[in-house]
Amino acid sequence: MSSWPLPRSLQTATVALPPTRPRLTTKQLPPSTDRPDVPAAQRLLAWVPPNRPPLPPFHDPVKVSEVMIASWAKSTLEGYAAAVLHWYAWATAVALPARLTFPIKSTELISFIASSSGIYHGNTISKWVSGLRAYHIIHGSSMDSKNEAVLQALRGTVRQTPASAIKPPRIPYTAAILIALRPAFRLAKPFDAAVWALLLAAFWGLARLGELTIPSQAAYSTRFHAPRERILGHKIHGLVHATISLPWTKTNAQGGQLVLSVQREPICPVLALRTHIRLNPEPPTAHIFSHGPKLLPMTRAAFTARVNQAAAQTQQPILSGHSLRIGGCTELLLRHVPLDAVRLAGRWSSDAWQKYIRRHVELIAPTLALSRPNADSALAMVGSLGP
Description:
mainly alpha, DNA polymerase, domain 1, hpI Integrase, Chain A, 2 domains, 3-stranded antiparallel beta sheet, Phage_Integrase-like_Recomb, Integrase-like_cat_sf, Tyr recombinase domain-containing protein
């Protein structure tokens, strides 16, 4: 009588090396005219699946493709590209018949999920499933990614995430770190003034770096990147504030407002922005943080390199990922800014802001604390309990 194999977690423990996470490339797949070698952001569209539904005669494939792809940010498409790569690699490895590779049914999808569990982070595998769902949508089909068995398998991958795949939390940039960095910048120089203004704008405005920088000099477009004319000054209750109207954000193609308020020196974003504008007088259509006589737009690489140079000089942590957005969110909450105001400032429409919080104890303890008389008696009681 056959039975299901016992899960690894319930088998007798054996000493084994942790599995390695193979790095796949398109060159590792069998050659196919349906899978051309294209940039990652184009892969979901360019890789034509077998059994794709026939297109109706009135269908304009170019127009439809353009409008479908436009619904995702480029960075999202690049992440989803890994999904189809790993899917076809797995299908090749297990000799899955082509007719079963698209559309993907729950049985094959769960097998694919299980094959990667314990090797990759559960969140990574979940993103692959989202990518495969997008792949189906683009090519006129559907995939049931909300099937209860699929969801159960995805929950299992999170529990089986290997320690080697878990990254330590990003170190947030704090107000104290920014103050320590300040002496490393020569604000009389146009480039340093632009970098410093961007640094403070990202921190106090809870911005993603991709919203204020550009990937390359040639990539600058006022459709996606804020030009100088989108800076507006305001005077409220006698204090000067500034807003930057973002034409586009990662989560909202219609853009959003980045609000900067006067802060104490030496880390006031409004004063830093004024200094930058004075030293880098540019036409209204130039990139908001363009600098120097050639009006070079600020690339993410140039910005990050200069900040990390300053960090090394002052023995501070290097800038990584969402360090500024995380730090700014935490700083505002520590200053008792209401949660709704922080969510609005960070342009969050969901509870995703919670993962940006650091220093939970300092934030929560004052709210949970007892009134002073009761706190004194409670402390006395705790002190008498011993270990």
